[in-house]
Automatic annotation (TrEMBL):
UniProt cross-references to PROSITE patterns, sorted A to Z: ABC_TRANSPORTER_1, ABC_TRANSPORTER_2
Organism for this UniProt entry: Deinococcus enclensis
Designated name of the protein: ABC-2 type transport system ATP-binding protein
Alphabetical list of PANTHER family matching this protein: ABC TRANSPORTER, ATP-BINDING PROTEIN
Any Pfam family hit: ABC_tran
Length: 312
């Protein structure tokens, strides 16, 4: 996500969302914002409300209280216009007509996408292109009934991408996929985000999403208990030194260091970017600190998640 995208108007904004089914409160006071080019991963234990949140964001379920806007349009009161920019797979794998081929099913989706206000014309070339991107060219003219679970899952993502959405919402897009299929979805999501699409996906695969999501929202018991900015976390480095306290003082004097803490025999510092490592090393040397080792301080999202959910 670029700096300009950070200041761009939100692609999706959830404000004070509460959802009740009868006496059961499934979501309570949820607020979140996703900007163009951002990959936002929603995670949480079974039953924490991820699918309900996704269904409400796509307009399939109605909020009990609160609002959801998609590119400044209210998803529930300006539905068709808001959803013209949306691609989504909410039930995985998405439902298709089993007696029709992959191409025919996408043609049906394309016809639907062209209807209503703000409808988008999807060409045959575009259908071929998304099938190729999802590595389904070989299956294009086979009936969906003959598709494997993973192939149907990928056809769902192809269908969601068809009309060039500005917001893509995927409920557990990698469940049921083999490692190559998972990697393919990563590449596609990253590519879409790079071209400015906002992507929201739900997942249980924390170590996998830590490699490509920008933000992780943790739901627990229907509340968004934390929002983790992974980019900020991953720009941390650890230095094994002879004097961690002196190292902290030296690093804190640098304008780009956001935070430095001693964890003997290490000092952990948020440098903002890898390119700052040589300057940090020079500053340590100038302060008379001996450095024996320098390495990225990998943020363990899984450990962090366990801690947050257990203490929520
Ligand atoms: N239509 C419904 N009517 C009543 N309760 C519902 C309905 N849909 C979901 N719930 C309840 O809401 C809670 C959250 O369900 P949801 O499917 O959103 O969780 P989830 O985080 O997606 O779970 P999982 O990780 O298992 O997919 C659950 O307790 C579920 O029983």
């Amino acid at each position: 996500m670029t700096t300009s995208a950070t200041s761009a108007p939100p692609s999706i904004e959830v404000r004070e969302l509460t959802k009740r089914y009868g006496p059961h409160t499934v979501l309570e006071g949820v607020n979140l914002t996703v900007r163009p080019g951002e990959v936002y991963a929603l995670t949480g234990p079974n039953g924490s409300g991820k699918t309900t949140l996704i269904r409400t964001m796509t307009g399939l379920a109605f909020p009990t209280a609160g609002t959801i806007t998609l590119l400044n349009r209210n998803v529930h009161t300006e539905g068709n216009r808001a959803r013209a920019y949306l691609g989504a797979v909410v039930e995985a794998p998405a439902k298709f007509y089993p007696q029709f081929t992959g191409t025919q099913n996408l043609q049906i989706q394309a016809n639907l996408a062209g209807m209503g206000p703000g409808g988008v014309k999807v060409t045959r070339d575009r259908i071929r292109d998304v099938l190729a991107q999802l590595e389904l060219t070989r299956m294009a003219d086979r009936k969906v009934a003959e598709f494997s679970l993973g192939q149907r899952q990928r056809l769902g993502v192809a269908s969601a991408m068809l009309a060039d959405p500005k917001v893509l919402i995927l409920d557990e897009p990698t469940s049921g996929l083999d490692p190559v299929g998972i990697e393919l979805i990563h590449r596609i999501v990253t590519g879409l985000a790079t071209s400015g699409c906002a992507v929201i996906l739900s997942t249980h695969h924390l170590r996998e999403i830590a490699t490509y999501a920008h933000t992780v929202g943790i739901l627990s018991g229907g509340r968004l208990v934390d929002t983790v900015d992974l980019r900020a976390r991953q720009a941390a480095y650890r230095f094994r030194v002879d004097d961690p306290n002196r190292a902290v003082t030296a690093l804190q004097g640098l304008p780009f260091v956001q935070k430095a803490v001693a964890r003997a025999p290490m000092v952990i510092a948020s440098l903002g970017a890898e390119a700052r490592v040589p300057e940090a090393l020079s500053a340590l040397q100038a302060a008379g600190v001996k450095v024996f080792e320098a390495a990225p301080d990998h943020f363990d999202l899984y450990e962090y998640y366990r801690d947050r959910v257990e203490n929520a």
